[in-house]
Amino acid sequence: MRNLLQILTAKKQALDKFRPLPAALAKNLDEWYRIELTYTSNAIEGNTLSRAETALVVEKGLTVDGKTLQEHLEAINHAQALTFITSLVSKKRQAITPDDILAIHKLILSKIDDANAGRTRTIPVRIAGSTVIMPNAVKIPMLMREFFHWLHSPLTEHPARIAAQAHHRLVSIHPFVDGNGRVARLFMNTLLMQEGYPPAIIRKEDRRRYINAIEKAQLGDSLDDFFTLVYEAVGRSLDIYLESLLQ
Description:
- By secondary structure, the protein is mostly helical.
- The chain has a single domain (about 15-245), classed as Fic-like fold (Orthogonal Bundle).
- About 60% of the residues lie in helices and about 0% in strands.
- It has helices spanning about 1-15, 25-45, 50-60, 70-85, 100-110, 140-150, 160-175, 180-195, 205-220, 225-245.
- Helix 7 packs across helix 10.
- The protein is globular, with a radius of gyration of 18 Å.
């Protein structure tokens, strides 16, 4: 595990030597990540838009035959949420507020479930196919206060580990009726980008491994599988940046 973090640090140091990145390359990578993160994050949740279809919806504003209105809105909303989190990157971790997370969630569920968008849940929820019992809704305010107490504390761990922990803590609180996974992944990437790392892409093909790693830790086992998956995702993103610069 430590070796993986040392590799990430080395790759990040190599990337830092190229900063500031050429403007055209930075723009191209931002546009690529906007589609890739939107496609993969939504695909993990069951959205059936392909990568190319996601690009059509987000970049061209087109509709795709045979796809639902909700699937279109999920693509548009996620892309808008990505734009929003870039405004948080200039903040320090300790300056992130509960309102920032609510704002991300509001964007994710906009026009899909406006009654719950940007609001923590007041009802119990269960995850289909999982034996994990999510916290009682009355505990959400206390759990979120504890989450922010941890987030704002002087953490000294590797940025990738802190980001992964934040993801797992947030998705395990499950503060929302829907959209918890998307919000957790966006927030994890906010923390990574604040530290100069590129966003981590949890690939569609890793969906089962990702879900199993989260559930394993929620049931009291180690977070190691989840950490490994996130570190690998961060490493792939660093490779994408470095390979683009060295071409």
